[in-house]
Design brief:
about 90 residues, about 65% helix, mainly alpha
């Protein structure tokens, strides 16, 4: 992309590493929760600890984290687009 005077601008709109890490951690929690809920017998640790309930909690936390990571990643992309438009429309001087 070139500016009004032939200047070349490099535009990158990538997902920040924080959002990528958040998506990965969220998928890990969903997977761990599914394993605890569906693959392990609920009475492995006795009656005092309910592994299946802990699995459901992990899946909920992972789902909320995934949703928030996707929402915040899309908002960060819009910000970089706005910054690009400001740079292109700013008079040089």
């Amino acid at each position: 992309m070139t500016g009004s005077e032939g200047n070349l601008y490099l535009v990158t709109t990538s997902v920040p590493e924080v959002a990528t890490m958040g998506i990965g951690v969220s998928i890990f929690f969903i997977t761990l929760g599914a394993i605890l809920k569906f693959a392990i017998e609920p009475d492995v640790l006795g009656d005092s600890v309910h592994i299946d309930v802990i699995g459901v909690i992990f899946m909920c936390v992972g789902g909320v984290g995934l949703l928030l990571s996707i929402i915040f990643a899309s908002r960060r992309g819009e910000t970089s687009d706005r910054q690009l438009l400001d740079q292109e429309n700013r008079p040089e001087g």
